[in-house]
Amino acid sequence: MIYLHELKKLLLSPVLLALAAMCVIANLTFLLVERDSLAPYDQLGHPSDAVAAQAVSIFEGYRTADIAEGYVRWYRLEGDNAERVRAKYEALQPVVDRKAASAEKPPVYFSGRMTDLEVLLFGKLLKHVSQEIGLLALLCALLAAVYEQMRGTERLIYVSKIGRKIQLAKLWAALSTSAALSLFVIGLSLLTFFVLFDFPIPWRADVSSVFDHALGESKPFITWHDLTVAEYLGAALAISFGLALCCGLIGFAAGTGIRSAYAAFGACVLLLAAFDLIARSPLLPVGSIFKSVWSLNPMWMWRNSGTWFTDGRAEVLWANFETLGLFAYSAVFAAAAWLAYRLLRRREIH
Amino acid sequence: MRLFLYELKKIWNWRVLILIAGFAVLIWFSILKGNMETYRTVSDYGGNFGPYQREMFEKYGPTLEPEELADYDIAGKMAALENELDAWIAKDPLFVQNGISTYAGYENFRDQNRDSMDEKERAAFDEITMQMDIKLSLDDLWNDPKKRFASPYIRMTMLGNLNATYTDYERNIGYYLMYEKHPVLIEAARQVLAKHNNSLVPDNLGGVVSGHFTVVGVSVILATLLLVSPSLNRDRARGIHLLQYSSAAGRRILWMQWAAVWVSACVFSLIAVAVSAVPLLTADISDYAGVSMLFMVNGSIAIPYEITFAQYALLLVGMSMLLSIAAACFAFVLAKFSSNIMAAVLKIVPLGLAFWALYLFAISGALEYYNPLFDRILHGRVAMPEVMLCGALAAVGMLTAGIVVKREKRADIL
Amino acid sequence: MLSLNRVTKQYGSFAALEEIDLEFAQGVYALLAPNGAGKTTLIKMLATLIFPTKGEILWNGDDIVALDASYRDIIGYLPQDFGYYRNHTPREFLRYMAAVKCLKRDQVAGRIDELIEQVGLSDVRDKKMRKFSGGMIQRVGIAQAMLNDPRILILDEPTAGLDPKERVRFRNLISSLSKDRIVILSTHIVSDIETIAGSVILIKDRRLFAQDSPAAICRTLSGKVFETDAIEQIKTPRLLLTERQENGRTITRFASERGIGDSGSVRSVEPNLEDVFLYVYRDEEE
C-alpha cells in the first residue's frame, strides 16, 4: 500500500512528467533536423537490390589482429598494454571465422540506407534516449530519497511503524517510475523515428552483416554473439534500461546517504563527471586493466553506446563489456545504496 | 550596498567553489591539457604548414607580402629537402628494387598510367606505392607528428602547402566564388582576394581556441548554475523571505538578489575564462593577437570575418559570459517558482542541459563557416549570428528575471 | 510501562542529558524545562529518532530500539514544527500517514473521519492544507499521531504558536485522549500542563530535577511565595517572579527562602507551577 502512495507521488510529480515530455520533444526535434539533412531515399539503391548486386563476404579472410595492430600503433602502445589489446582481438578471431562460415546469414553490405540507420537509430537516437532515461532515473530516485526531508515530514514518517524502511518502498517506487517514464520516452521516440523514416529494416538479418562498419571506424561491425537487428535493438534497449537502473541506484544512494539534498545532487554530478573525465584522461593508458575497468562505467558506456555487443575498441579488454560493466557497476551502486540505507537506519534525525 | 554584498556572500559559497575547482582540475587533465599538447605538437611538427608558417610570422609580422614570400625562398628550401630525400631513397631497398633512386623517379613511378594494368597488376602496384608512401612519411599510421616530421618528404609537403596557400589563392577563390552560395562567405572571399590572402594566422589557431572555449564555455555555464542555484532557493525554503519582505529593505531584496546573481555570473565567468586562458597565453598563442583571422587555406575560409585574433578571442569570451548571465537569470526565475531546493534542481538540471546543447549547437565552431546556426539554419545570410543569439538570450534572461522581480512587488506571500 | 534507565545523550564532548531515570505508566506526563534544556532530545529518544549514548529505554522490559517497528506501532508522535504536504487535504494526508503506520485499509476510512471529527476539522476535511492556520495544522498533526490509537502519545511543544483559544481547545483534546494511554508532553508553557498533567518532570542541568504531580511540585515552594505592592521595602534576599497591575498599583510576586509571613503590604500566596518554573530555573535566567 505504501508503495502505491510513493509511486503516486512520483508519477504525478509535475517536474518529472515535464522532464520526460521535454526528452520526447528534444528527440522529436533532433529527428526532424536529421530527416532534413538526409538524402532522399529514392536516390539510393534499394537494400534487396544491393544485396543481390553487391553482397560482399567481408568476414572471409578478415584478420582481427589487424584491428589490434591498428590500435597499438594509433595509441602507441607498448609492453603489457599492447599484449592485452592483442589478446582481446585474438579472442575475437574465432567469432569472425564463425561469421565467415555462416551460410544462413549472408552479408548484406553496402545496402543502401543501412549506414544511415546505424548512425541515426543506434549511433545517435538510442544514445540520446539512453542518456535521457538515465538522467530521469537519477533525478527520480534523488527526488524520492529526499522527498520527506524536503517537506519536513521525515520525523513523522520515521516514527511510524514502517519507519526508515520507507526508503525501500521509495526505491521501488522510484525504479518503477523510472521504468514507466523510460518506456514513455523510448516508446514515443522510436514511434517518431519509424513514422519519420521509412527505412526498410531487415529485422531478421544478422546485425554484423547489416551494418557496413563499426561506427566512426573502418573495421566491420563484429558482435561477439550472433544477433539479428531486432535482437540487437532489444539488447541495446535492455542495456539502456540497465544503465538507467544504475543511475537510479546512484541517485538513491546519494539522496539517502547525504543529508543535504543539494549536496546529494552535487555528489551525483561530481561522480558522473569524474566517470567521464577520468575515462578521457590520458592518465589512464589504453590497454591497462584500470582503464578497462574504468571504461565500464555508465558515462563511458553511454558515450560508446554504438559499440555495445562488439569489441568496444581498445579501451576495454573484455568481451561483452556492456553486460559485464552493467552488472559490475549495478552491483557497486546497489551496494552503495544498501550502505546508504544502513547509514540512514542508524542516523540520528534532528 | 551592504545588502548587495550580503547576497553576494551567500552565492560565493566556498564549498561549492571547491567543488567547481575540483571539476576544473578534472577538465584540465582530461581534456584541455591534451588539447594544448596537441596544439603545440601540431604547431611545431604537424598540420598543413609545420613550423614554417610560424617562422614566417616571426620574421615578417602578421601579414605576408609578395616580396617577403620571395625572400623566404620556399623553392630553395624544397630543393634542399629533395636532395636529402634523394640520398635517402637511393639507400632504401624497396625503392631500389623497383628501380627508383631519386624522388623525381618515385614521382614518375607513382604517376605512371594504371589503365594498361590488369586487376592483379593494379593491386600489386597499389600495394607497392602504399608501402612507399608509408616509408616516405616514416610510417604515418603512427599517430605521431613529431616522428613524421623527421621525414623530408613530409616537410616538403608542408612547404608545398605553404607555397600553394600564398600563391594559388586566386584560383581557389575563383572556385569558391563560383560554387559558394552563402552571401557572408562570398563577401569574405572577396575580402581575402582584395588583401591577397596575406594573413599569417596559423590554420589550427581558430580551431584550438574555439575548441578550448567550447569546453570552457559549457563548463562555465554549468559551474555558474552550480554556484548560484543553492542560494536562490535557500531563503524561500527556510521562510527567511518573509522576514526579508517585512523588513525595511522589503521586496527590494529580490532586486538585490537578482543583481547579485547576474553580477556573480558575470564575475565568475570572467574569472573562469581568464584562468582557463592562462595555458593559451603561456603557449605562443597570444603572439598572434593582431593577426587577421580572415584567411583562406585548403580552398576554404574558416572564419569569414575581418577580425583580429584578439577580437575573435574577446568575442568568444563575451559569448561565454552572455550565456552564463542568461543561464543564471533563467535559473533565478525557475528557483523563484520552486518551494524547495530539490524542486529547483529538477528545473535547473534541464536548463543546464538545454544551455549545454545550445552551446554545442550554436557556439561550437563559433564564427566559423560550419557553425550550425550560421550554416544550416541561416544559410550564411547573417554575419556573426552566434554573438547575436548569445546577446538575445542574455537580454531575454535579464528581462524575464526583471519582470518576475517586478511582479513580486504586488504578489501575496502565502 | 515505559522506562528510562540511566539514559545519557552526548554530542561529542557536550552532554545534552545525563543519567535520566524515568518511568511512565498511564496518564499525562509533562516535561517542563526552559528552551535548550534537553526536552526535545528526550522526546526524540522516546520517538527513536535519536539514540541514547548510554543507558536504555525499555517498553515493558524490552529495548525500544531493538523492538523497532513493533515499538513504533504503539506510539503516536507530534513533532515540533512538523512538515506536511501543502497540496494534500487533511483526509489525503491522514490516508498517507495511515499507510506508513501500516494500518489495515478497511479500518482507515472510518478512523480518519472519526479523528477529523474529533479534532474539529470536518468542514475542511477536503480542502488543501496550504491555507490552513497554525492551529488547524496542529490539529491535523494530533490526528495523525492518533491514527494508530497509540499506547504512547508523544507531543513535542504542541501548543507553541497557538492562540489562547486554540491552546485551550488543544488542552481539552489532549485531556480527552489521555485515557488508557501514556501521554508525554514537552512544553515550556506552564499553563498548558497545570490542568491536564498528572505528573510533571523537571529537567535541570541536563539531569532529572523532579518528577511529581503538579500539586506536589507546587508544594515544594509552599510558604515561600509572596505578593506585595511595595517590593522596595523587602530587604530579605528574594527572587522576583512576576508583576501585574491592580487598581493602579504594581503587585510584585516574589519568592524568598526566609519566611516573611503576612505582614504589612506583604502576603503569602499559594505557589503555582509558573512560580516553581521561575524559581527552579532562576540560575539560567541570570
Write a brief structural summary.
Chain A is mainly alpha-helical and 350 residues long. Chain A has helices spanning 2-11, 14-37, 47-54, 64-74, 79-101, 114-151, 154-158, 166-196, 207-210, 229-257, 261-280, 289-294, 298-303, 321-346.
Question: Can you describe this structure?
Answer:
The complex is a heterotrimer of chains A (350), B (414) and C (286). Chain A has 350 residues and is mainly α. Chain A has one domain (2-39, 58-346). In chain A, 69% of the residues lie in helices and 0% in strands. Chain A is built from 14 helices and no strands. In chain A, helix 6 runs antiparallel to helix 11, helix 8 runs antiparallel to helix 10 (229-257) and helix 10 crosses helix 11 (261-280). Chain A is globular and about 70 Å long. Chain B has 414 residues and is mostly helical. Chain B folds into 2 domains: 2-47 and 200-408, no CATH class; 64-167, no CATH class. Chain B is built from 19 helices and 2 strands. Chain B has a two-stranded antiparallel ribbon. In chain B, strand 1 (296-297) and strand 2 form a beta hairpin. Chain C has 286 residues and is of the alpha/beta class. Chain C has 2 domains: 2-218, Rossmann fold (3-Layer(aba) Sandwich); 223-269, no CATH class. Chain C has helices at residues 39-46, 64-67, 69-72, 90-100, 105-118, 134-146, 164-177, 190-194, 214-219, 273-280, 282-285, and strands at residues 2-11, 14-24, 27-32, 54-59, 62-63, 75-78, 152-156, 182-187, 199-204, 207-212, 225-228, 239-246, 249-255, 267-268. The A-B interface holds A 15-16, 19, 22, 26, 37, 70, 73-76, 135, 139, 142-143, 146-147, 150-151, 261-262, 265-266, 269-270, 273-274, 276-283 and B 16, 19, 22-23, 26-27, 29-31, 33-34, 139, 141-144, 226, 229-230, 237, 340-343, 345-347, 349-350, 353, 357, 376.
Helix content of chain C: 25-40%
Report the end-to-end length of chain B measured between terminal Cα atoms: 29 Å
Largest interface: A-B, 35 and 32 residues
Shape by Cα distribution of chain B: elongated
Strand order of the largest sheet of chain C: 6-7-8-3-9-10
Q: How many helices of chain C does DSSP assign?
A: 11
SS elements, strand count of chain B = 2
